[in-house]
Every structure is written in structure tokens, then in C-alpha cells.
Amino acid sequence: MAIIEVKNLVKTYKIIEKEEGLIGYFKNLVKPKYKEFTAVNNVNFSIEKGELVGYIGENGAGKSTTIKMLTGLLTPTSGNVIVNGIIPNQKRIENNKNIGAVFGQKTQLWWDLPVIESFRLIKKMYKIPENEYRKNLKKFTELLDLEELLEKQVKNLSLGQKMRCEIAATFLHDPKIVYLDEPTIGLDVFVKEKIRKFIKDINREKKTTVILTTHDLKDIEDVCDRIILLDKGQIIYDGEKQKFKDTYGRYVIAELIVNNIKDNIILNNAEILEQNDNKLKIKFSHDETTIVKIMDEISKFCNIEDIHMKEAELEDILKEIYKGVHTNVKNNDATSKNAI
Amino acid sequence: MLKTMMQLAKMQFNQYNIYKSNFYLFTLNRIVEVIVYIFVWQAIYSQTGNAGGFTLSQMVTYYILAIAFSSIATWGINETMAHSIRTGQINKELLNPLTYFQYYFGMNLGELAFAVVIGIATFIICAIFWELALPVSFLNFILCIFIIILGIPITFFIQMIVGTIGFYTNSIWGMQIFRKAVIQIFSGIVAPISLFPLWFQELSKFLPFKELIYTPINIWLGQVDYSEILFVIIKQIIWGAVLYIIAKKFFNHAIKNITTNGG
């Protein structure tokens, strides 16, 4: 039995259509015109206990709306959400006991008080047994390096310190499911790494289900096993991260330092992305050619001094998908779903 | 649940107490208020000799107690709540494993605890400078405190109603001033109810505000029959229940609005 089950989920907002000018303003007051906007359009997925899922998409793709429906903060227009056997928007308090959530910059820590006070409140709210609380606190303090922060007032912490405390607060009551909405926004590399490692460690040890939405794809690359890709309210990919990369990222990007360019360089089976005085950036697929063949070709036009290659990363692939290069993504997904 | 509320109350209390100057300034403020009221009434008594059935020393006691109790009657969490709605912090608070009302009631208790501390400090300092009438009996003292405690849910639910308005308007500042003004006039902080016109006295008999200040002080001074105290207790319980239903309905309606329209 899946811990999260989402079926035919739809969320439509009514927005008041604003008209220009003073007359428009009064018209709106008397008889507002509504426009419908579908933020989430027939979304289906199910998530098993202990999965690390990256829920990704552009701004406005419907990620946060989905998360809000999963937590019970929003009522779906149609469709079903079942989390841990409960319909969240009907039994919100019941559902809240099983979940933890980080929403970007909003905090559950009390601004004027030492961090530990907020932790104590969480302990009492969730009725965490004393020994459990101590054990978790000790462990989190080690993993997230909180030792010196606990007695400090929240307002005196830096963004990174605050987020480390926030993450610890979210996991303190051993939630079954954790929703992380942009947990690493605005943080430096070290803090990001610490948080990612923490999420992975806790997931391994406690089988916590984690749903992560982020714009930093390094987070996904590092933490998640599965990705759900959302575009304009619809899922366009749902499956293993590795498979996603294998399917859409079967190409390599090579940067070459060259000199004595004789002619306009024309290559078969490879695409030139960038070219200036002595630098050349190309993209090719392993299916079609090899690096040796390409170097052969290039050396007809110039001397190669150095070469640097990198595999396609999630970020490159997603950029292409957003740009509409892989128009077949949607269709592929539809067929794979049918297969299941 | 109780433990959670005590922790919430403690935190809200500490949030005030972190700025020690808060305590001194609020207390000083109250004492200045007492001084102003007492000077005004001393001037009036030197002209008339009697007002509203109070002697001057009773009137002095009345104002010292009224100002000491006033923070309990007028303070609360509606500003915190409106702020939380405005900034979207409410989304986070709705994910707590206890209801929004329970969460805010806990915080409200902390706020009132601070009001009590200021009230006691005001009372003690004033008692040094003016001669105060003591409670007529121990029973009256207990009843006075009991009536004040009965007022706590009432002011809390009013706070929640005013706070909920924050869902519909950007600022509840105006509503908050209005709420404060209503309580100040109808509770008898501005002047004892017995000095107001008859219609006003009749009206305030059925409103719950008189019992926040005026009635407890009169119980302290021994000017209320026990049968009337019984009536007052029943009245306050009914008001508490009615306001609870209104506040809850209003809040749920507002919440439904954001859960279907996304805030």
C-alpha cells in the first residue's frame, strides 16, 4: 500500500479578471468577472514508504499547489489525495501528526527566542517521548552542527544556520512524510551539502518518505532516486532519475581549445554550441559517433590543443525539455504509463 | 495538550520579557494613567463631593484596580494572528498537530500572564502611594478573580474574530482600535458604568464587557449581591459559548475560502 496516493488530481483557481481604469474598477466591485486557471491538471502518482522523490518543474508549474493539497492546506477541485490512509484536507490535524514540512523562507522557529525553546514546543506538541527527543536532538546536533546554535536567539542566526535548525525542527518528531519546498534556497554550498547529507541519512535510517521541490537540481541529483517532472500542471515524466538521464541525456558536451582555424567548421553528427577565437563547444551523442571520429573531423579545420568532456547533467536535460527540444517526452510518458 | 499550551504561554511571555524595557515601560504607562484619572476625580470630588455612589477613596481604589486589570481585558493575539495571515505564516501554523484555536489560546495565555505581571506591579506601586480599600471579604476576593477569569475566553474569542478579519482586509488596525474602544467604554475603564446614562447601563447589563472590569471591582468593594453574581456567572458562560461558536464559524469560513482559492 502506497503511503501517498494521488488520483486524477485537479485544482482550478478562480481569479478575478481586472479591468483597466476607474470604470473597470467599479464594474469589478459590482459584478466581478472570473477567469478560471488550472494549476494542477489531472495528476496521478503514488509514492511508497521511504522513497526520495524530487518534484520538479518551472515556476508556476503547479508544484506548490500539489504540495499544499498533499498537506491538506488546499482542497482539490476534483480527484483524490490519500496520505497514509487519510484524506488530508478532511482530517488535517490527524494528518499533521504524521508529516513535517519546510516551506521556503517561512519558519516555525520563534524569532525572539532561543532555538531550543521552539524545539521544546515541538516536543510537547507532538508528544515526543523524552528519550526519543534526546536521542534525535543529539543526533541532529551532530549531523547539522547545531551545538552552538541551540541557545542562540533565532533572530541572531544567519540564513544557513536558521535553515539547519528549521530542518532539524521538521524531522524532530520522526514524521513519516516530509515535504521540503525549496529547503536550500539562498544557501551556500557547504550548508546545502550538509542538508542533503542529513536528508539522505535520516531517510536511510528511519525510512522517512521525502518529497523535495527545488530549483537547485544539484539537490535532486544528490538526494533523489525518483523524479516527477511537472509542466503546466501536468506530469510529463515520472520515474527513476537514472532512467530519465539515460533516456534524454544520451549526449556528451565537449569543450575544445583550438588554434589556427582555417575554415568554417562543419561537423557531421555533432552540433556546435559555441565558437569563438580558440574555443569550441560541441554536443554529440554516443549513438551516432565517437570522440575519436569527431576529433579527426575537427583536426581538418584546426589544431586541437586541449579537450574537456562532460556528461549531460539533469540541468542540461531539463533546460532542453523546457525549451521544447524533447517534444516526445509527453508521449513517451503516456506510453510508459499504459505499460504499467 | 495542557503541556503544549503552557509551553506556548511560556514562550509568548518570554517573547515580551526578552525586552526588559517592555515591563518597565508598560508599568510606568499604567501608573501615569492612574495618576491622571485620580487627579481628575480629586478635582471633581472637591466640587461635588459624590459621584455614582462612590466615595473618593472608593473611586481611587476603582481606578487603581481598573487600570491594573485593564491589560487583561484589552490585550491579546489578534495583531499576531493578522500578521501571520498577512505573511502566509498561517500555512505553517495550520500544519501543527493542534487546532489553530488551541495554538493561539496558548499564546493568548502567555500574553495575559504578562498583563497580570504588569497589573500586579501597577497595583503594588500604587498601593504604596494611595490608600486602597481592601476586598470586603476573602470570598469576594476569590469571586472577583473568578469573574475576571471567566472573561478570558470571551476576550479571546473576540480577538479571534477581529484577527480573522485579517483574511479579508490588509490591515486590522482600525478594527483593533474599535475593539479596544468598545471594551474600554463598556467595561468601565474610562469611567464607572454607574455614571453613564440609564439606557447605557441597561445595555451593558446584557453585554459581557462590564464583567471584565466594573463588576469585579464592585465585588471587591462589596457592592454586588451574591444573587447578581450568580446571574453574571451564567451570563458570561453563555456569552463565552456564543462567541466561541461565532469565532469558530467565522474562522472556518475564512479558512475554507483560502483552502479553495489558495489565499
What does the model show?
The complex is a heterodimer of chains A (340) and B (263). Chain A contains 12 helices and 13 strands. Chain A is of the alpha/beta class. Chain A has 2 domains: 4-245, P-loop containing nucleotide triphosphate hydrolases (Rossmann fold); 250-311, 2-Layer Sandwich (Alpha-Beta Plaits). In chain A, β8 and β9 (234-240) form a beta hairpin. Chain A has a 6-stranded mixed sheet with strand order 5-6-7-3-8-9, with helices on both faces. Chain A has a 4-stranded antiparallel sheet with strand order 11-12-10-13, with helices on one face. With 263 residues, chain B is mainly α. Chain B has one domain. Chain B is 78% helix and 0% strand. The longest helix of chain B is centred in the C-terminal third of the chain and has 36 residues, at 226-261. Chain B is globular and about 65 Å long.
- Summarize the main sheet of chain B: none
The share of residues in helices of chain A is: 25-40%
- CATH class category label of the largest domain in chain A: Alpha Beta
Mean pLDDT of chain A: 86
Helix vs. strand class of chain B: mainly alpha
Predict the CATH topology of the largest domain in chain A.
Rossmann fold
Strand arrangement within the widest β-sheet of chain A reads 5-6-7-3-8-9
Number of strands of chain A: 13
Order of helices and strands of chain A: EHEEHEHEHHHEHEHEEHEEEHEHH
Strand content of chain A: 25-35%
Rg of chain A, rounded, reads 25 Å
The count of DSSP E runs of length 2 or more, i.e. the number of strands of chain B, is 0
Point out poorly predicted stretches of chain A. Answer: 330-340
